[in-house]
Amino acid sequence: MITTAGSSATRVATDDWPLVPGGSFLMGSDSTEVFPDDGEGPVREVSVSAFRICPTAVTTDEFAAFVDATGHRTDAERFGWSYVFRGLLHPDAREHVVDGVVPDASWWWGVRGTTWRCPQGPGSTAAPDHPVVHVSFADATAYCRWAGVRLPTEAEWEKAARGGLEQRLYPWGDDLTPAGVHRANIWQGSFPTENTAEDGWTGTAPVRSFEPNGFGLYQMSGNVWEWTQDWFSPFWHARDQERTRVDPQGPPRGSAKVVKGGSHMCHRSYCNRYRVAARTQTTPDTTLGHTGFRVVSDVDAAQSS
Known about the structure:
alpha+beta, 13 strands, 4-stranded mixed beta sheet, about 300 residues, 6 helices
């Protein structure tokens, strides 16, 4: 079992969070649609202890309560800028663009004054029921310490996202839009120039916008990427099977963290990572307009049965 890295007093109510039962599941994917450098495969049997998980990503309102209580300054606030998708940039923010670009991703613009409070740059306002964004790994873990919870491991996140289904592409099955119904907030159209917003949203959506999965969890695919505890490696789980099959926590060190779930900017043409098994890496100090987090809580033996 992974130990909660938080204070002795839990500041968020976790008893009514969905319980993910302990036990094994098939993790990863051998699909031909994967990105080889991501290290999704091979499919392997992994066992995790029971835990509770927040049904939604942490919202702007919830993060505000943490900031109000602690005075925490996020990395984006300390840096003085963060990355905004150019198609969502607030009109008043154009004069604040800085010379910051993501390699091979010219759609990201560095914008001064962008924080979790104004996610599309100065002049914008964060919606209270949307997931908090422009938070680094350090910001997410600081929230966890205050709240008495923790970030999930990659294995925990993936088991929770599967919602009790085995080796399905998405939290609800293999059909992206069953019966023509959108089940996730992702990109529709031609990325990065045209988003038809057929699912109802061009940017982030409220955290309960779509039907939950079998465990009662909302938007485990799309909307925002979610930080996990684990350091990223494309081959750790294949090389060290003894340490990566029971409550795995990833390699002991690294340069980037695993993020899961995809985002509202994911499109099959270039980023088919809203699949449950998909994974990618983000450096811990990175802050982006499509990255947030979800938290978990440990349970004792009596609660897990």
